[in-house]
Recover the amino acids of this structure.
């Protein structure tokens, strides 16, 4: 089956998408006594978009958005803090990602495995975009 390309007017040639998939961490998350006392697993997925023209042109890490640096920042924050709500943890991870100037848009989904009986997990997804951010 042939691949169908979009018209050039629909392509944004330098917009890159980074996907961090199934980042498994342990942290304190929840409101029940056992959740407060014991670390639990969380699974983080993030989609990050940025302009990659300079990274493509120069083929040098200084011109790219360093996903390793972002991931280390997220790991340190999640493992080093306690959270009552999954919503709060998701917002804080999204804020960390958006703190990198090159990031145009990001979406973060965090799963809490086995949070509900008979369900694999419960997740919260939040998104942000630099274009619609308001200051002051």
């Amino acid at each position: 089956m042939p691949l169908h390309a979009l018209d050039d007017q629909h392509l944004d040639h330098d917009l890159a998408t980074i996907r961090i998939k199934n980042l498994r961490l342990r942290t304190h998350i929840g409101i029940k006594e056992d959740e407060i006392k014991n670390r639990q697993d969380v699974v983080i997925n993030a989609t990050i978009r940025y302009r990659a023209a300079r990274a493509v042109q120069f083929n040098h890490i200084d011109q790219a958005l360093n996903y390793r640096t972002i991931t280390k920042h997220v790991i340190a924050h999640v493992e080093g803090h306690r959270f009552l709500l999954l919503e709060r943890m998701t917002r804080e991870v999204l804020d960390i990602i958006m703190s990198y100037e090159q990031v145009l848009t990001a979406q973060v989904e965090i799963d809490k495995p086995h949070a509900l009986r008979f369900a694999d997990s419960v997740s919260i997804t939040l998104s942000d975009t630099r274009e619609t951010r308001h200051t002051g």
